[in-house]
User: Fold Ubiquinol oxidase from Daucus carota.
Amino acid sequence: KFPVMGVRWRSSLTLGEKEQVNGSSAAAAGGDNKREDGNKQVVASYWGIKGEEVKKEDGTPWKWNCFRPWETYQADLTIDLKKHHVPTTFSDKLAYWTVKSLRFPTDVFFQRRYGCRAMMLETVAAVPGMVGGMLLHCKSLRRFEHSGGWIKTLLDEAENERMHLMTFMEVSQPRWYERALVFTVQGVFFNAYFLAYLASPKLAHRVVGYLEEEAIHSYTEFLKELDKGTIENVPAPAIAIDYWRLPADSTLRDVVMVVRADEAHHRDVN
Assistant:
């Protein structure tokens, strides 16, 4: 488990676990939520409202509160991992060398600790889709026009990257200064990307495309370390098995494979 203040991040807790965590505060959050037998009913919701019960296809209860069964899928592992957009224009070259310059400090800081590197990568990778989707959403409202489906595409991308983070939280134990670094890097990157998207959406998307190319490289190195035995190939977290519809006996290597395929898809989109 990935401990934060005694428990894992709440977004990755199962519904039953979250009810236990919120047990002491449910009365304050949900008012007098009581069952017919007079006992207080613990509500696993930020608003103190009990959500609908969701079940799997086999009829068993769905235990995740951060995604639902209809949001799961099987990753396309046949996607071309070597595809590369050769920078031709000044904008392309600016995006390419900006990303390359960010690679060096990352390699120096994390070295071969690919689990923690993946966590840092995903806290950053989930930002562009949300920023782009938000700005396109506002643009659509201002202009009274459709977005051509891009708002949902970008928000789905952000959510997918967030699920990568929820997964790696289960297998990595970042140190305190790495958590502090997340706050700094995400704050700087969010604002820089926001301004870049306002100035040139094409440049911003090109940066993401090259970031995803670097992500593919990082996960390929991750796989090499797993194959060499340098990193233990532990069983896949339950959240990953349900999200990517993986076999029950899947391992960390299988998780890295599907995450890398996701990154390749995001590369092509951007």
